[in-house]
Specification:
This protein is mainly α and 155 residues long. 51% of the residues lie in helices and 5% in strands. The protein has a domain of 107 residues: Recoverin, domain 1, CATH 1.10.238. The longest helix is centred in the first third of the chain and has 22 residues.
Length: 155
């Protein structure tokens, strides 16, 4: 009888953790989904570092590039919500597209998209520590960009 009990006890000891897991499913994650800038905070430390930002922007480009040709059209960049944009929104979108389309070929390449993403990160990283958060980026956006150097007219 003892010979039978030892293997049963061993099997029970091995199975016990699995039974406990089956009985108590993990609690669902009730934290709200991160929005805005913080959706790129992959490690959950409350900051977005340059690697997280770059990965997020690359994923965003891929999401926008619906036909997978490696470049964005205006239609791909400004996917609508079903509500027609206002005239001022159309003007802002056209200006933003023109800003990104640095080679003026009518498309925004991944390189052009990522170059603007790098500029955005640099602008938000006020203390230049290589990581940003919502508060730092809001502060950066409140500030006016540094004025461009005036053209040297003394030639």
């Amino acid at each position: 009888m003892l010979r039978l009990m030892i293997p049963l006890a061993a099997a029970f000891a091995v199975a016990l953790p699995q039974l406990a897991l089956a009985a108590d499913p993990p609690a669902p994650d009730t934290r709200p989904a991160a929005r805005g800038l913080m959706r790129y905070d992959a490690n959950g430390d409350g900051f977005v570092d340059r690697a997280e930002w770059t990965a997020g922007q690359e994923a965003r480009f891929k999401q926008l590039d619906t036909n997978g040709d490696g470049k964005l059209t205006k239609d791909e960049m400004f996917v609508g919500t079903g509500v027609p944009p206002s005239d001022s929104q159309i003007r802002r979108q056209a200006s933003y597209f023109a800003l990104l389309d640095t080679d003026k070929d009518g498309f925004v390449s991944k390189a052009e998209f990522m170059a603007q993403a790098d500029r955005n990160f640099a602008r938000c990283d006020l203390n230049k520590d290589g990581r940003i958060n919502t508060a730092e980026c809001r502060e950066a956006l409140r500030r006016r960009p540094a004025p461009a150097e005036p053209a040297n007219l003394d030639r």
